[in-house]
Design a protein that fits this description.
about 325 residues; alpha/beta; ten-stranded parallel β-sheet; two-stranded antiparallel sheet; 10 helices
Length: about 325
């Protein structure tokens, strides 16, 4: 896997990220990455404390409501039918199963329930039951979030009418690096879906994955892409690659944990009012790395034993770490 050229890049932003006052240039973001670690963390803490309770972390639960069989070729994903990962495709879950899981998540303290389906784009026959799931989960008193792939015209309107609060659609990686990770769609396809949900007043959950084989410059480009969305996403999941046997990225070397923490801090500084979510890869992190991530401004996690198809720290481990750090889960 070749990493991006370290040469200077100019980003071609989508219409939802047109140049405006206060925009973050790639160079400015790259300069943040280069700060001495203590200075970077100090600056991130200053920003974080200005907008959030520094000792509170929001919890969401993520459920795969339709697993595997996806036609896309995302190089990191076990759910692509193009790769032999041992994952068995499963049909869409029933409403009863989803509501049971949502209630259990609420009982364990989650405030948001996210439902993910492995589709390129939802067909009409698929969207109808999902709309009912959104409506019924909302009645439980939970915030609702879905990730269903790329949306067609009119689908965002229907999700909004059902009561959807958030739509997750990650940008994954830098524009210039994107075709090395995915070829079956473009970053502009993803930005088009973000535009669709934003136009309906649905909040945006959009982040990326680090450790795909990209270099630091590409991470700076990714953060600039996200920060320059107008407005910035309300939730920004920062995922660490979980290498999965059978995928093209199975042998990519692990990202240095300190570099991951730097990415969290830069996301916090550039997107001061967004929830920065410590997402995939937590299971592989030490408690000390996670503690540094919270210090760097991460203030949201996925709770529960699974993240779609990968392992996640169990509730007891999270509770124990929060107790040691004096963090309140909300």
């Amino acid at each position: 896997m070749n990493s991006c050229s370290p040469a200077e890049h100019k980003i071609s932003f989508h219409r939802s990220a047109e140049v405006r006052e206060g925009e973050w240039s790639t160079d400015a973001v790259a300069e943040l990455f280069e700060l001495p670690f203590a200075d970077l963390i100090f600056r991130a803490q200053e920003v974080h404390r200005k907008h959030f309770d520094a000792n509170a972390v929001q919890r969401s639960t993520l459920l795969s409501i339709k697993t595997g069989g996806c036609s896309e070729d995302c190089s990191y994903c076990s759910q692509s039918k193009r790769y032999k990962t041992g994952l068995e495709a499963e049909p869409l879950m029933s409403l009863e199963e989803v509501l049971k899981m949502a209630q259990a998540a609420k009982d364990k303290g989650a405030s948001r329930f996210c439902m993910g389906a492995a589709w390129r784009s939802p067909k009409e026959k698929d969207l109808e039951p999902v709309l009912e799931m959104v409506s019924e989960v909302k009645k439980l008193g939970l915030e609702t979030c879905v990730t269903l792939g790329m949306l067609k015209d009119g689908q965002a309107e229907r999700l909004k009418a059902a009561g959807l609060d958030y739509y997750n659609h990650n940008l994954d990686t830098a524009r210039e690096f994107y075709s090395e990770i995915v070829t079956t769609h473009t970053i502009d396809d993803r930005l088009d879906t973000i535009d669709k949900v934003r136009s309906q007043g649905i909040k945006v959950c959009a982040g990326g994955i680090v450790g795909l084989g990209e270099n630091r410059r590409a991470r700076a480009v990714l953060i600039a892409q996200l920060a320059n969305l107008n407005p910035a996403p309300e939730s920004v999941p920062i995922n660490g690659l979980v290498p999965i046997a059978g995928t093209p990225l199975a042998e990519v070397p692990a990202l240095d944990p300190i570099e991951f923490v730097r990415t969290i801090a830069v996301a916090r500084i550039t997107m001061p009012t967004s929830y920065v979510r410590l997402s995939a890869g937590r299971q592989q992190m030490s408690d000390e790395t996670q503690a540094l991530c919270y210090l760097a401004g991460a203030n949201s996690i996925f709770s529960g034993d699974r993240l779609l198809t990968t392992d996640n720290p169990d509730a007891d481990r999270d509770a124990g770490l929060f107790a040691r750090l004096g963090i309140q889960a909300v």
